[in-house]
Amino acid sequence: MRTRRILVVAVLAICAFLAAYPGSLHGAGIAAALALAAGDAALVRATGGLAFARTRSLDERQAALRDLAYRRGFRLLGLAIVLVIVLGYASDVAGFFLMARGPAGVNQLDTGLAARFLVAGLELLVMMPTLVIAWSQREPADDDPAPAAQRPLGAPALAVPAILAAWLAAVAWAPVQTAAPSAGTSIGADSPGSVCRHFAAGHTYGAGFGATVGMRVEVCWNGRQAFVDPDPDRMVTACGADDVQDFAVVSGVRCDATVDGTGTLHYTVRARVSPLPLSIGARDVILRLAVTRDGAVLERP
User: Fold this and answer.
1) How far is CA 140 from the centre of its chain?
2) Contacting residues for 216 by C-beta, under 8 A, at least 6 apart
3) How large is the average pLDDT for residues 237-266?
4) How many angstroms separate the Cα of 66 from the Cα of each of 45, 73, 87, 217?
5) Are strands 249-259 and 265-274 parallel, antiparallel or unpaired?
6) CB contact set of 32 (below 8 Å; sequence gap of 6+)
7) What is the spatial distance between Cα 57 and Cα 268, in angstroms, rounded to a whole number?
8) Cα–Cα–Cα angle for 12, 40, 72, nearest 5°?
9) Residue 238 DSSP SS3
10) What is the pLDDT of residues 120-157, one digit of tens each?
11) Is 219 in a helix, a strand, or coil?
């Protein structure tokens, strides 16, 4: 029972970490997800998959225990959802103050519901009855043969390699998604003798379970040429400021601005999204923005 309870505490601690940690996970999100899958497999094996067993395969005691676990589990699930929301809000507030202290400020991209919150929520939704059973179930006597519902299961162990394979495939080959500016992004001011516009956009790789590469730049034009806002004190242009790398690492970020003979500004962001070390499954990323000397946008992410 002690081992099972340690596993339950570990699973809940990982869920709390995913929901509450205010900063980037720098690619460690997948390690947390795999740790949850491994813990789930161990708990399902330890409880004989009682929470998922068919009613006709259970004796009276097992059926009563499973029904009690579902009643308690979904009550605790409601409490857990409230805690996840509170922790998520506290994380956002903490992240706001932590990032606001830096020159880049807060993230300006709307990447939707963070995948790590989704992982924590699904974990609690699916596994809460099993967690209750693992915490409260007594140890069977040594001479009591394990019933069918209590026999070790091999299938849950396949969850870890299955999740790893699906994640690698998503990061390496899933279609690229466009990340739009967040609703709170409203930046822009005219420089003397020119008009300026703020651009915040990005590309998401791995459908939220990989990384997002962002572009943040203030572009000005005066009829002769377009150029990046020359005032660094306004801090409206920042290279790599809006990258999100909870489940994959963004590296080699480089931002280049060139003006061609017609006065058109070409702003390029280059980076690499790597799900694993040694660039295994890595994708090279290029974001391009082109603005003419009159402010017309020819290309953007």
Assistant:
1) 40
2) 104, 108, 199, 200, 236, 237, 238, 239, 241, 242
3) 94
4) 15, 10, 30, 56
5) antiparallel
6) 14, 17, 18, 25, 116, 119
7) 62
8) 60
9) strand
10) 989 988 899 999 999 987 765 333 444 444 444 556 66
11) strand
Residue type, 128: M
| Antiparallel, parallel or unpaired: β 249-259 and 226-228 | unpaired
Q: What is the pTM of this model?
A: 0.81
Separation CA 15–CA 36 (nearest Å)? 8
Rounded Cα distance between 2 and 6, Å, is 6
Q: Treating both helix axes as pointing N-terminal to C-terminal, what angle do 115-136 and 2-20 enclose, rounded to 10 degrees?
A: 160
3-state SS, residue 79: helix
The amino acid at residue 280 is I
Query: What confidence tens digit (pLDDT) does each residue in 65-106 have?
Result: 888 888 888 888 888 777 767 766 666 655 555 544 444 567
Amino acid at 131: L
User: DSSP label at 165?
Assistant: H
Residue 184 has pLDDT above 80, yes or no: no
> CA of 203: how far to CAs of 120, 169, 237, 244, 285, in Å?
24, 17, 17, 10, 9
In terms of average pLDDT, the best of 138-147, 180-189, 258-267 is 258-267
- Measured distance CA(205)–CA(274) in Å, rounded: 10
pLDDT of residue 101: 45
For 161, the token pair is: 């390699």
